[in-house]
Specification:
By secondary structure, the chain is an alpha/beta fold. It has two domains: about 100 residues, Roll (Urease, subunit C, domain 1); about 300 residues, Metal-dependent hydrolases (TIM Barrel, Alpha-Beta Barrel). The chain contains 13 helices and 15 strands. Strands 1, 2, 3, 4, 5, 13, 14 and 15 form an eight-stranded mixed sheet that branches. Strands 9-10-11-12 form a four-stranded parallel sheet. It has a three-stranded parallel sheet with strand order 6-7-8. Strand 7, helix 2 and strand 8 form a beta-alpha-beta unit. Helix 6 runs parallel beside helix 7 and helix 7 runs parallel beside helix 10. The protein is globular, with a radius of gyration of 21 Å.
Length: about 425
């Protein structure tokens, strides 16, 4: 038994908060009791005095890249999971753009089996199309039965409208969401940078906002017609936020996620940090950043997901147009949410935790994101006021524009299935 004493519990599922003691059964991985502070009990337990730190459901990230199989020099399932635990995450959903892709039962089983040895819950999406080629659908039903959490060709938009329509129909029958990367390649000359002052700074054309707007508009229309669960990934433009807002008024099947870098940074960061701030979709303008925050405030954007995308230092050091897009995010996400959203008054801590745990878990039908007696003992304990400096990572990669910054929000413990998997 493990007793967490004197913590301030926040549970977004029940919208309950206050000082509580939580008794955890490490043997069955469940929460045994949630008690008022100082309640006497008969059970013998190891005690940890949290001194007022926040206890919340273990964070859930439904958009991460662990590069395994195929690119394990960047990251692997074990190092990615370690980065997740350090950031307070107890559940992650991997994207399927590996090599081989997760378009078959063998690769799916490899990822899920390897994930079982990490100490956290590792789920994965399967591909929508075979080899991410956009030509032939995978056996979505079989992959769903074998444990795929959802379907995506993340990184590659699905251009065939009829194929997308069929994929949404089949995914809906499986009870699984489809998550889409929304950038029309026909609009893009150089990806990873906004077609604006940042692109002009580097003397290239960049990625115009129209690339995202076109795809979001089309895909929302199809999803509304098919009444299927669709998640718009890492939204980056104010126009796309508004399209989602209007679509959500018509259907409960529409979802959207925002990445911490998109509600924190603008294209100015690319001019400062170069390829370390290069990503798809790119950082845009201040008006877009503010629109994303407004979308998080009013519920248009349901989830915060990191799009954790590790790359080697050698790759990121290439000339700007050759360097790969993406930054790591698991170890800085909670802190950025606290700094940019809670401390600035845009979201309450309850709302932030909800968007980083309960909401993503609900979309992907994961048993996570809530605190209740008999429920999973997956928790994060953190001090929202204590500061730390971004210096080193549990991830294999360090491709982050936030290196050297001081941030609020120190994770003290990450507990998964009743076991401490990270402790400062």
């Amino acid at each position: 038994m493990l007793l967490l004493k004197n913590g301030y519990m926040i549970d977004p599922a029940s919208e309950t908060e206050g000082y509580r003691d939580i008794l955890i059964d490490a043997e069955d991985g469940k929460i045994r009791r949630i008690m008022s502070q100082g309640t006497a009990m008969n059970e013998k337990a190891e005690e940890i005095d949290l001194n007022g730190q926040i206890i919340a459901p273990g964070l859930v990230d439904v958009h991460v890249h662990f590069r395994d199989p195929g690119f394990t020099y960047k990251e692997d399932i074990h190092t990615g999971a370690a980065a997740a635990a350090k950031g307070g995450f107890t559940s992650v959903v991997l994207m399927a753009n590996t090599k081989p892709a997760v378009d078959n039962s063998e690769t799916l089983a490899y990822v899920l089996n390897k994930g079982k040895g990490t100490g956290i819950h590792v789920y994965t999406c399967a591909n929508v199309t075979k080899g991410q080629q956009g030509k032939e659908l995978t056996d979505m039903e079989a992959l769903s039965e074998l444990g795929a959490a959802g379907f995506t060709d993340d990184g590659i938009p699905l251009m065939d409208e009829a194929l997308l329509r069929e994929a949404l129909k089949r995914a809906a029958k499986c009870g699984k969401p489809v998550s889409l990367h929304e950038e029309n390649p026909a609009f893009i000359t150089n990806n990873g940078i906004n077609a604006g002052k940042a692109a002009e700074h580097f003397g290239i054309d960049g990625s115009p906002r129209a690339a995202e707007i076109f795809m979001v508009e089309r895909d929302l229309r199809i999803a509304l017609e098919e009444e299927a669960d669709l998640s718009i990934q890492h939204i980056s433009t104010k126009e796309a936020v508004e399209l989602v807002r209007q679509a959500k008024k018509k259907s409960s099947h529409i979802y959207a996620e925002a990445a911490p870098h998109h509600f924190t940074l603008t294209e100015d960061a690319v001019m400062k940090y170069g390829a370390l701030a290069k990503m798809n979709p790119p950082l845009r303008e201040e008006a877009d950043r503010r629109a994303i925050i407004e979308g998080l405030k009013d519920g248009t954007i349901d989830m915060i997901a990191t799009d954790h995308a590790p790359h080697s230092a050698k790759e990121k050091a290439k000339p700007f147009t050759e360097a790969p897009s993406g930054i790591i995010g698991l170890e800085t996400a909670l802190s950025l949410g606290i700094r940019e959203l809670v401390n600035r008054g845009y979201l309450s801590m309850m709302q932030l935790i909800g968007k980083m745990s309960y909401a993503p878990a609900k979309l992907y039908h994961l048993d996570a994101g809530y605190l209740t007696e008999g429920g999973p003992a997956d928790l994060v304990v953190f001090d929202p006021e204590k500061e730390w400096t971004v210096e080193s990572f549990a991830s294999k990669a360090a491709n982050s524009p936030f290196v050297g910054e001081k941030m609020p929000g120190v994770v003290g413990y990450t507990i998964c299935e009743g076991k401490i998997v990270y402790h400062t």
